[in-house]
Amino acid sequence: MTVMRIELLGTSFTLQSDEDPDYLADLIDFYRTKIEEISRSVTTRDNLKLAILSALLVTDELFKERARSTKAEESSGEEVTRIAEELIAKIDAAMPEQR
């Protein structure tokens, strides 16, 4: 069990998790970076709004990555089907007909 003290946007809390501490630290650093990006691009200094906007940014990135991944999987599957069909055609052409 990992126990971490986290400080974000002026709030401190303790997080308990079964995840690897380095993984959790990477997650927190990633989110902290998103908060800093949002903070530089908006005029609000309201921490709740910054947290919500940062969460939306991370969620947007997640959804876009899922869409890219799905599209890549679909095109990869189509490519495998095309190659398999070409190979079958070549094998059929190379083999004499069986009667």
Overview of the structural elements:
The chain has 99 residues and is α+β, with helices and mostly antiparallel strands. It has a domain at 2-67. It is built from two helices and two strands. A two-stranded antiparallel ribbon has the order 1-2. A hairpin with a 2-residue loop joins strand 1 (2-8) and strand 2 (11-17). The longest helix has 48 residues, at 47-94. The protein is elongated and about 80 Å long. The model has no long low-confidence stretch (mean pLDDT 88).
List keywords for this structure.
99 residues; elongated; 2 helices; 70% helix; two-stranded antiparallel ribbon; single chain; 2 strands; alpha+beta
Secondary structure elements and pairings:
Layout (H helix, E strand, L loop, with lengths): L1 E7 L2 E7 L3 H21 L5 H48 L5
Antiparallel strand pairs: 1-2
Oligomer state of the chains in this structure = single chain
Give the helix tally.
2
The strands making up the biggest β-sheet line up spatially as 1-2
Order of helices and strands: EEHH
Radius of gyration, CA atoms, in whole angstroms? 25 Å
Low-confidence stretches: none
Short description:
With about 100 residues, the protein is α+β, with helices and mostly antiparallel strands. The protein contains two helices and two strands; from the N terminus they run ββαα.
